[in-house]
Amino acid sequence: MKYNLEHINKAFESKVRLGIMSILAVNESADFTTIKNLLNLTDGNLASHTRSLEELGYICSSKQFIGRKPNTQFSITPEGRKAFAEHIRALEDFLKNQKL
């Protein structure tokens, strides 16, 4: 039986975006530096992926200063949580249906 991959969300095909969403799905929020260090990314790489996820409405950011240093916090949106859960469920279903 062939399995339809239509429920796999292309936004999460990148391992970086999958990592960002995984971190934010289990934490209320995470700051830029924490995510960068956990995923071993460059500033530019993380910035481009978070921007893409923000444009899709899956995450949101807030900027503040802590002392004199800028701090960007990210959190998952309700839409992002739903989309990510559906993606994980689709992956699980795909894996369950791979028996020959």
Automatic annotation (TrEMBL):
The lineage of its organism: Bacteria, Pseudomonadati, Bacteroidota, Bacteroidia, Bacteroidales. Residues 16-94 form the Winged helix DNA-binding domain. It holds the Pfam family HTH_34. It comes from the Bacteria. InterPro entries: WH-like_DNA-bd_sf, WH_DNA-bd_dom, WH_DNA-bd_sf. This is Transcriptional regulator.
